[in-house]
Amino acid sequence: MSATTRQDPARDTLDALRRRFSPPLALVYGMNGSGAIEMTGEGARVRLSDGRTALDFGSYAVTLLGQRHPGVVAAVRRELDALPVSTRVLGNGTTAALGEALAAYADPERLTRVWLGLNGCDAVEAALKLARLATGRTRVLAVEGGYHGKSLGALAATWSTRYRGSLGPLLGGVDHLAPDVAAVPGAFAGEEVAAVIVEPVQGEGGVRPLEPAFLRALARAAREHGAFLIADEIQTGLRRCGPRLVSTDAGLRPDAVLLGKALGGGVQPLSAVLATEELYAPLTADPFVHTTTFSGHPLGAAAGVAALAAVEELAARGERLSALLFSGLARLARRHSGLIAGVRGRGLMWGVEFSGAAAAGDVLLELGRRGLVVSPCLGRPEVLRLLPPLVATDEEAEEALAVLDGACAAVPEEFRRAPAAPAAPAAPTAPAPPAVS
Ligand SMILES: Cc1ncc(COP(=O)(O)O)c(C=O)c1O
């Protein structure tokens, strides 16, 4: 390690990221951290290389349990000292334990089968493949505005043209329908549908809770047409939005639920498909029809078992935080009504829509300077997401709101429009229906 590295880890890191990865990405990292980089984390906070700490209300929804949750870290350490990788030819007790825990968590009567991956798109790919195999059909319906990942198969179901762009032809047979009850019957006309994939609250698409009536109509039509219903809860599940699952809370009976992001407890990469016997049948018949080297990885499995338990222990805390954020964001939306065009969300997943993408970008930089990490929306640059961890204290939630308030006050006047329609959120978290601005 050079003397420069010891003295200025941030500059060396950003230089290496620029050289070895991507100049624009390194530039954005540098701007977000005001020249500093992330060093360590604990609970709701990340410590930066310049000695500051930042509140982590972002991390693209991964740190639902905060940074280094003690229960998850201890479970992973135990596994690290036992058998961190599987031979893949012998049974592994930790992987089996995660299978049992997941089946008990979601819908023990229906979603009895499990497939494990590392990223969300792994789960999406596995579910789509199972649906095609189980039905013998190839057509898939996805929803406009939805995000399901960027691997080639998952990308076909993702709506944003920014990411689909010049990549065609993608996986064939995927059609998108508008999130509107009236669009449902027409979407099923024509070729038979293997599966419908839907995010009950669109996250990357700008934090858009879909209408329960639309979700129910979609589920009913899927059942009537013999198509499997896949609920992509990679972002919304595990109490991010209040209930264990938004889809089952809305009365749907999905044939598959996809989990990811927070499932690894903020410590390990982990995703899962929970499926009915019927959808999973091709894998029951031939377990090698869809495999990956690290599926069921013991370190991730240990993290997942601990994470499911920790999330349940913190459920009440999540409700309290959600109410606090709801009222705080409503206050800010009123105070900065020219800048904030709307606030939408549920539970611990809130989107603040600004007067435009440039305004959101400016607020993001200002938040970085003031020590609040949030997540932009990949498909809607005018929306910033607040994704606080369940472990945040009331004081940390108030602090985050105060930082957002200060950042909104600091951006140039040109980003403020004449106040228009009411910008406040409608209603806080569960039970029903999801809050829409
Ligand atoms: C709802 C949803 N599905 C799928 C994905 C893809 O997950 P990953 O980026 O881990 O592949 C994401 C990622 O943001 C997501 O939000």
What would you note in describing this structure?
- The protein is an alpha/beta fold.
- The chain has 16 helices and 17 strands.
- It is globular and about 60 Å long.
- The termini are far apart.
- A hairpin with a 5-residue loop joins strand 8 and strand 9.
- Helix 6 crosses helix 12.
- The strands form 4 sheets. A 7-stranded mixed sheet has the order 4-12-11-10-7-5-6, sandwiched between helices. It has a 4-stranded mixed sheet with strand order 1-2-3-15. A 4-stranded antiparallel sheet has the order 13-14-17-16.
- The structure holds pyridoxal-5'-phosphate (PLP).
- Pyridoxal-5'-phosphate binds next to helix 6.
Give a brief description.
By secondary structure, the chain is α/β, with parallel strands linked by helices. It is built from 16 helices and 17 strands. The protein folds into two domains: 14-65 and 315-415, Aspartate Aminotransferase, domain 1 (Alpha-Beta Complex), CATH 3.90.1150; 70-313, Aspartate Aminotransferase, domain 2.
